[in-house]
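Hey forum,

I'm writing up a methods section and want to include a predicted complex as supplementary material. The small molecule is NAP. I've pasted the protein sequence and the SMILES. Can someone with a working setup run it? I'll credit the forum in the acknowledgements.
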Amino acid sequence: MPASGEVTIVSQSILIAGSHGQVGHHITEILGGGNRTARAMVRKESQTEEMAALGGEPVVADLTADVDHAVEGCDAIVFAAGSGGEDVYGVDRDGAINLIDAASEAGVDRFVMLSSMGADDPESGPEPLRDYLIAKAEADEYLRNSELNYTIVRPGELTNESGTGEIRAGEDLGLDSGDIPREDVAQTLVTAIDFEPVYGETFEILSGEESIEDALEAVSSS
Ligand SMILES: NC(=O)c1ccc[n+]([C@@H]2O[C@H](COP(=O)([O-])OP(=O)(O)OC[C@H]3O[C@@H](n4cnc5c(N)ncnc54)[C@H](OP(=O)(O)O)[C@@H]3O)[C@@H](O)[C@H]2O)c1
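Reply by user p_vandermeer:
Happy to help. C-alpha cells for the complex are below, copy them as they are.
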C-alpha cells in the first residue's frame, strides 16, 4: 500500500498526443527519461528524430485522421495537443473526440486531458478565446461521458519559466487569470496518470506552494 501522496506506476506505455508541442516536449522528456515507454505522437516524419532524442518512441499520426495505430498497445493517453487557434473545432474538439473513440475501441482505459481554465464557462471568457473554450468544453464533456477513466486538468496561462514543482489545484480556484510554467503542467499531467485520487476529477491548476502530489490529493478530498 503506497503512503499518502505516493504514486504507484501501473501504466507502462503512454501515448502523448501533441508530444512535439511545448508542453509535449516536457512530457516526453519526463516519461522518456524514466522506465516507461513514452509513445511520442507527431504529425510529421521529420519530427521523429527530435522525439527519439528526448527518449520518446515516435509514432506518426494526425488527430484529424486515423489514430488507431498510435493508440494500440498503450496503457494510458495524455492529450497535450492543440490547434493554436487555427482549427479549434477540428483539432481541439473533434481531434480529441477521435482519440477518445480510438482509445475506447482499443481498450485503453486511462485518459489525461490537458484542458484550460475557462472551459467550465466559455461564454464568460474573453471574446477571442470563446470558440477555443467552447471546443475544449465540448471535448471535456465528451470525455466525461465516455467509459474511460479520465482526469481533466485545466491550467491558467502557460509560461516558459522553469518549473518549480509546486502548484495549487482546485475544482474552481475562483480566479479569472493566473499562470503556470509549462514544465509544471507537464509534471502534473505525468503525475496524474497513475494517481488514483484524481481519477474522474476535473480541476484547475496554477503556480502555487504545494507539491504536485499534495495539491492533487487535496483536489479529491475537496
Ligand atoms: N497557451 C496557453 O496559455 C494555454 C493555457 C491553457 C491551456 N492550454 C492548452 O495547452 C495546450 C498545449 O500548449 P502548448 O503550448 O504545448 O501548445 P503547442 O506548443 O502549440 O503544442 C500543440 C501541439 O499539438 C500538435 N497538433 C496540432 N494539431 C494536431 C493534429 N491535427 N494532430 C496531432 N497533433 C497536432 C502540434 O503539432 P506540430 O508541432 O506539428 O505543430 C503541437 O505539437 C494548448 O494547445 C492548449 O489547448 C494553453
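Some notes you might quote in the supplement: Residues 61 and 170 are 33 Å apart (CA to CA). Residues 18, 20-24, 43, 62-64, 80-84, 91, 95, 114, 116, 155, 157-158 surround NAP (CB under 6 Å).
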